[in-house]
């Protein structure tokens, strides 16, 4: 083999001998003139390294400090006018139909449809309505709150935080949409049950059999889900639904306990106030958690 | 859009994540390098307005992010790709980008469709438009997340490891796209891939232990190597030469 070329000699002298092709390394082992030139190059490189000061990492603080004072005008932030904000709110709210689990709609609308069919077909529709409308409606509306808090579709995810519509607004839109749809459906079934001949119930009293406990269940579920986790929210919802059942059934726990529970878990001022407070607390926590550090 | 940080610090509870970071991104593409846990993602979260700086001064596009109103404002101006983007798995790519455009304030359905179509084209996602996100590979999801970040052409793009998990062909495509965007907007990205810095970045900072230990050009970083001008050697020299503060200490 010929002697090594200049590039190979330079690389070998600059501590890159191992990067040379095997044939060149083998030649170097057997060729004294080439080895001598490599050693000369290595000595030269070492001398240059000693003579050349090592580049210092520049002090960027010192470099930029004089310029930091002269801040440019702020880049204008996009604003949303009232009309567009309304349209945007409506569009975001309606879009939540696609963002919640499809199973929610199947279960809740199926459940209400089954209830409506039972009310229509059973001769004693009044008894069906008074026995089942409350528990079923409370359960289905509370289930809606659980679906709103599904972590896989959470609008507070980090990638959704840098948007024009803040995550908490999306969360509230979803809660409003889902609850609105379910409460309207439950109301429609209640009105239908009351309108049937021989029902013996006014629409108002049938709606009152579930509205307060359902809203309290929603408040407790969302609060638990946002405060701790969706599982905690689900547990709160289950407890609330059980309490609403106990409140209407003295035979389950006795009159004393039943009346105490009924003071909260029936359609009354206490239930509605607690529902409003727990929903407000959940919304506040949702707003704070969208600002919470991740990781 | 210019980003200037002066002595910026941040803590997660008692754990220090950033200490006295001072840098100026200028325009173009700015890269953040550093070992795992160096504070890159935290700095990017601060830039995106999703965290509040605990100390120092962070000014993005003239907005001082110490103020909550400024952080709210900057979130409208920035396209943000977090380290672990969580996309809605039950939506298709087109549905997700359409929804993103809606959350960015685009009410008109046709305009949203155009924006989503354009973003998919730029990220080579047109064939996956009707595919559910749950069915996509990691690299393809990453491209969807980038498309999500650059919808509406924000003046500042904050990208946490944008080319992670991508095959070489798509990595090249994303780099070309980011270089193109960097000509008109500011792109701040973190990466472990020195080729990203070599091929993309106008300026680069190296973080270690929550502190910026080098800020300058990629060429400048390369020349910090004892011998030669290799970026990898320069990065290694800078990271190993500096004794960082003990990580995670309050």
Automatic annotation (TrEMBL), chain A:
Keyword match Iron: no
Keywords: Membrane, Transmembrane, Transmembrane helix
Chain ranges passing through the membrane: 103-123, 129-149, 170-196, 202-224, 231-249, 269-287
Source superkingdom: Bacteria
Name recorded for this polypeptide: Zinc-finger domain-containing protein
TrEMBL record, chain B:
SUPFAM superfamilies: P-loop containing nucleoside triphosphate hydrolases
Residues in coiled coil: none
Classification via Pfam families: ABC_tran
GO molecular function: ATP binding; ATP hydrolysis activity
The ABC transporter domain, residue ranges: 3-234
KW Cytoplasm (keyword) present: no
Record keywords, A-Z: ATP-binding, Nucleotide-binding, Transport
Family: Belongs to the ABC transporter superfamily.
Protein name: ATP-binding cassette domain-containing protein
UniProt source species: Halostreptopolyspora alba
Organism phylogeny: Bacteria, Bacillati, Actinomycetota, Actinomycetes, Streptosporangiales
